[in-house]
Amino acid sequence: MSGEKKPPIWKSFGYAFEGIFTCIRKERNMKIHCVMTLLVILAGFIFHISATEWCICLTLFGLVMALELVNTAVEAVVDLVTSECRPLAKIAKDTAAGAVLIAAIMAAIAGLIIFLPKGIALFLG
Predict the structure, then answer these.
(1) What is the pLDDT of residues 100-121, one digit of tens each?
(2) Which residues bind substrate per the record (predicted)?
(3) CA distance 48 to 59
(4) Ligand-binding site membership of 15 (annotated)
(5) Which tens digit of pLDDT belongs to each residue from 86-101?
(6) What letters, b where the CB count within 10 A reaches 16 and e where it falls short, cover 62-72?
(7) What is the rounded distance in angstroms from the CA atom of residue 40 to the CA atom of residue 62?
(8) 79 is in an annotated binding site
């Protein structure tokens, strides 16, 4: 263990928020996740979803965005280590992106399960 002193907790939070905002500014997919999050929140208020449905939505927002942050970190580290097209670098980048894709697809399916019946009821209602 190194003798480095850890930064105060407020600085650690500052670094974390800096990472989040950097990802939002620089990554197209994170911008898409943010827009979708806002649309789902709006739909949640319009359709008066239950507390359980809100918890599901919030958990899925967090999961997808957290994985996007990890994916961005993996891509940055791989790019830092090599600029060549190397098989292991490709595996690292592709599997990290795949994790985000799986979470986003599952979130979209859960969203359809929550919102589609409410939309149909409103349309037919």
Answers:
(1) 999 999 999 999 999 999 999 9
(2) 68
(3) 18
(4) yes
(5) 999 999 999 999 999 9
(6) ebbbebbbebb
(7) 13
(8) no
Instruction: Copy the structure tokens of residue 58.
Output: 């919030």
Ligand-binding site membership of 75 (annotated): yes
Would you state the pLDDT for residue 103?
98
Report the percent of the chain where pLDDT is more than 90. 87
* Structural domains of the chain ordered from first start: 9-124 (1.10.287.3610)
- The answer on whether 94 is annotated among ligand-binding residues is yes
Contacts 24+ apart (CB under 8 A), 36-43: 37/61, 37/65, 40/111, 40/115, 43/115
Query: Tell me: the pLDDT tens digits for 4-27?
Result: 788 889 999 999 999 999 999 999
Q: Active-site residue among 4, 18, 68, 84?
A: 68
Residue 4 backbone class (left: φ over 0; alpha: ψ -120 to 50; beta: rest): beta
The answer to the question of whether 5 is labelled as a binding residue is no
Compute how many other C-beta atoms are within 10 angstroms of the C-beta atom of residue 125. 6
pLDDT of residue 84: 87
